[in-house]
Amino acid sequence: MRGKNKKKDNKGQTGSKLTYKGKIEITRNGMGFVIVDGLEKDILIKREHVNNALNGDEVRVEVNKYGKPGGRVEGVVTDVVKRKQSEFSGKLEVLTHFAFLIPDSDKMPVDIYVPLHLLNGGKHGDHAMVRIVEWTGKTKNPVGEVISVLTHESMNEIAMQGILVENGFPLTFPDDVLEDAARYTEGVTKAEIKKRKDMRDVLTVTIDPVDAKDFDDAISFKALKGGNYEIGVHIADVSHYIETDSALDKEAYQRATSVYLPDRVLPMLPERLSNELCSLRPHEEKYTFSAIFQINKQGKVKEFWLGKTVILSDRRFAYEEVQDIIEGAEGDFAKEIHVLHEIAQNLRTQRFKKGAINFSSQEVRFQLDDTGRPIGIIVKESKAAHQLIEEFMLLANRTVAEYVSGIVFKDKPVPFPYRVHDVPDEDKLKVFSMFAGRFGHKLNLNTPASISQSFNEMLEIVRGKPEQHVLEQLGIRTMSKAVYTTDNIGHYGLGFENYCHFTSPIRRYPDVLVHRILEQCLNNEINPIKHLEQQCRHCSDQERRAMEAERAANKYKQVEYMQQFVGEDFDAVISGVASFGFWAETVEHKCEGMVSVSDLAEFDNFELRDGEYALVGFSTGIRFAMGDKVRVKVIAASLEKRQIDYAIVEVPKRKFPLTDSKSEIPNSGKKGTGLKAKPSNPKRKK
């Protein structure tokens, strides 16, 4: 009979259908787009064909092989290969024979069915966390199991846990993973020490944030004859404990990163490893993987050694303690710290001369009370103590990447997870260059080297000036995003031809992969890791998800903090613009909120001018541009929406169009002066 044995096409599919695998992004109206590697255009999925896929899932999609010429390819989701998120928070509705979880997040469009035997103590009205255990295409609602009840937790706890699961990070470790971690014993063995370079007698210290618990790097120091120094960068030997393809390894890979929220850390590894066995705590013998340099004060590396070691940390420093010593205070190992500081600053100077871009970093942290509620804002800047650690970590990462890049296996470079950063997008650069020109800065866009040089010159000139923050922020947005890949294109922002992540295996899975491959190369026992590029993409995706979770949690804390100031006025700086309004960040609190374009309608109709990063009034020429100072009133702070709403207090001076120089705004004051905005009702709904 006809049709029984259809001929397969070159994609391995039958008949007129092709199947692809990719990640689905679902819009607010329910329509989806599947992003497939190698396809120029995304595949459109109509709402009725999304089936049970959720935003961010990896899906299999079927398309018509013979679509309309030139038209967008449409498809149907046939299978969910991998869920981005399998745990959801919400409120339980318990009925006579079954129960439902009403999800908090609109990212889950349907309720989750919970059989009574899977309630695990959950009661009607409880706030709970549910894990999906079954969801076939034949059923509208997924089946879930209650994994924790949050009824007695604070709103903060519910919010933070919700943010983590929304981004696909499980809150707990499976039992087999915890059992895997628990079977390792404390301390070091004589047999293992014999296989390693013994560094226990060399002065070694750790320098970390004051509240850190996982110390994954240490620095050793020894003065050599002739004026040189032996500086060791010692990294926790996580790969010694995590066996490839073990339950622990698979879980670490799935998470790929630790997640840092304002009031907690969700670790990549169980605490048994991250805070105990692998953590380089003082006065405890630990296994490490090390890069040891013979170096002079000018930062010139004479030679280096890479390999497994055992260390004994003599002292744990907080950054603040080291900073005090650098600035002249007395303290333990002050002489050694001053030498390390001098070498680090010389390494830093060399980097910038070779093309690294010198963006300054500023970190805003919340001071929290015992319940996690923000009671203050702390602005932390990168100081010499942070730069000391940063430069030696960069040196170790670069050295490892350079070493492995020179190893050949079967006439090809060894597959390796490089950390790369592409050159900036040409169109974005042109727009940014035009904007910088408004402040008198001219960028040379001829070559990658000239771009980085002129960027650094501009950043040096604007340091301390009002426009510094906006030019730095826009400059960072202009740059490409760093990712993990086996395609070694170099790291543009750092100015390195070869770079990888070697120094934080407790909190980053790519570093674990780097350790394994480096050990193979050093032992000349190379066995390339299969599907390494796929693992690199996964780690890059997880890194982005962690950043999204961190941003969402910080925004929640901003909203929570600003609730106390509803109705009050503050100085702010415009931090972003869009067609629907502009964002402003308060100078005092560094908290960002939105001024809606609808709130500006009483003054003019505004249009977005992309190249100028500004909203401009049609009739008056009033401008709201990135970097402008404004006075705003806090009119709403919604924890549910994670959104702060501001209203403009005073409109900038009018700039009348040439065609109507006598134009006036109704109810305005003197011509050419700033305008007072009408008071806003703090209780009105947005």
Q: What does the model show?
A:
With 686 residues, the protein is an alpha+beta fold. The protein folds into five domains: 17-82, Beta Barrel (OB fold (Dihydrolipoamide Acetyltransferase, E2P)), CATH 2.40.50.690; 87-172, Beta Barrel (OB fold (Dihydrolipoamide Acetyltransferase, E2P)), CATH 2.40.50; 185-417 and 490-533, no CATH class; 426-479, no CATH class; 558-676, OB fold (Dihydrolipoamide Acetyltransferase, E2P) (Beta Barrel). The protein contains 14 helices and 35 strands.
| Helical stretch tally | 14
User: What gross morphology would you assign?
Assistant: globular
- Give the C-alpha Rg: 28 Å
Tell me about the largest β-sheet.
Answer: 7 strands, mixed
Number of domain modules? 5
Between the first and last Cα atoms, what is the distance in angstroms?
64 Å
Spans of 5+ residues with little confidence (pLDDT < 50)? 1-12, 656-674, 679-686
**Got a strand count?**
35
| SS class | alpha+beta
Strand content: 25-35%
| Mean pLDDT across all amino acids | 87
Summarize the amount of helix as a percent range: 25-40%
Order of strands in the sheet with most strands: 11-18-17-14-13-12-19
Summarize it.
The chain is of the alpha+beta class and about 675 residues long.
Describe this protein with a few key phrases.
globular, OB fold (Dihydrolipoamide Acetyltransferase, E2P), alpha+beta, single chain, 686 residues, seven-stranded mixed β-sheet, five-stranded antiparallel β-sheet, disordered C terminus
Blueprint of the fold:
Layout: E1 17-26, E2 32-35, E3 43-45, E4 58-64, E5 75-82, E6 87-94, E7 98-103, E8 112-115, E9 127-134, E10 143-149, H1 155-166, H2 175-182, H3 190-193, E11 197-198, E12 203-208, E13 217-223, E14 229-236, H4 238-241, H5 247-255, E15 259-261, E16 264-266, H6 271-277, E17 285-295, E18 301-312, E19 315-318, H7 319-326, H8 334-353, E20 362-368, E21 374-381, H9 384-405, E22 408-409, E23 412-413, E24 418-420, H10 426-437, H11 448-462, H12 468-478, E25 483-485, H13 509-523, H14 532-562, E26 569-578, E27 581-586, E28 592-596, E29 606-609, E30 614-617, E31 623-625, E32 629-638, E33 643-648, E34 650-651, E35 675-676
Helix pairs in contact: 1-14, 8-9, 10-12
